[in-house]
Amino acid sequence: MRAESDDTGKEVSGVLVALADPIRRGLLDLLAELGEATATTLAEQFPVSRQAIVKHLAVLDAAGLVTGSRVGREVRYSLRPESLDAATRWMSSLAADWDRRLAAIKRTAEAAERDFT
Amino acid sequence: MRAESDDTGKEVSGVLVALADPIRRGLLDLLAELGEATATTLAEQFPVSRQAIVKHLAVLDAAGLVTGSRVGREVRYSLRPESLDAATRWMSSLAADWDRRLAAIKRTAEAAERDFT
DNA sequence: TCGAGGTGCAACAATCTGGTTGCACGTTAA
DNA sequence: TTAACGTGCAACCAGATTGTTGCACCTCGA
Q1: Contact between A29 and B84 using a beta-carbon 8 Å cutoff
Q2: Which end of chain A, N or C, is less packed with Cβ atoms under 10 Å?
Q3: pLDDT in tens, B35-59
């Protein structure tokens, strides 16, 4: 019935879901600039409430893209690139795989045409 | 207020949304194997109805990942790797950017520590 | 000490998403 | 010709997402 066959699938899946939202991509971008920031600070740069940002950060955290550490009364978030690297590698291999198979299909088609003409 | 700054953002966004769903990833996988297939054929390999598959294919089509062409009474779908390549490149550059900035932050932190001790 | 700032939690509303079913329409093949 | 097949469209449903607001709880600094 065809399920998720790749073993890296689960981790990569979370990253893709996380990256599918523009606000979350913006948060990653902003964190790359700032290095570290609190949810409240980050929220000032987006047109949504702090709570909304907190939820987005939770998604990013679950995907392993971000991590938060408590310092006194605040929580500072920062990037954690490993998961993104994994997703990039997965996409690259997927792209390579497509190319490989498409090339094979193309060869078959050309061979068929040669036989025909 | 921070919007999508990158110009490639819009195209890439669609691809990420498309890839965020496991069934859609499965469809891409299957199309890579088969080269070409109809919605009805594809639906047999998944635990959902043909109509659900048609909707997924529409999303993939909108993202530029697949294309369908009518042949008689059926519509044959096949892969179109360009968009995936674009997304891969985008993610790679994003990852590289993170690394660059993280390295800069790390250097700053180390310099501060050196000054302190 | 005590007020202000940052966080966490919960309830709620609205929209999106993924899925279903039923049916009409064109195309193919017996 | 006509029955079967593949497709397209529309209505509809349930649950997930995204956002809000209100409030309680710590922690810091004057």
Answers
A1: no
A2: C
A3: 999 999 999 999 999 999 999 999 9
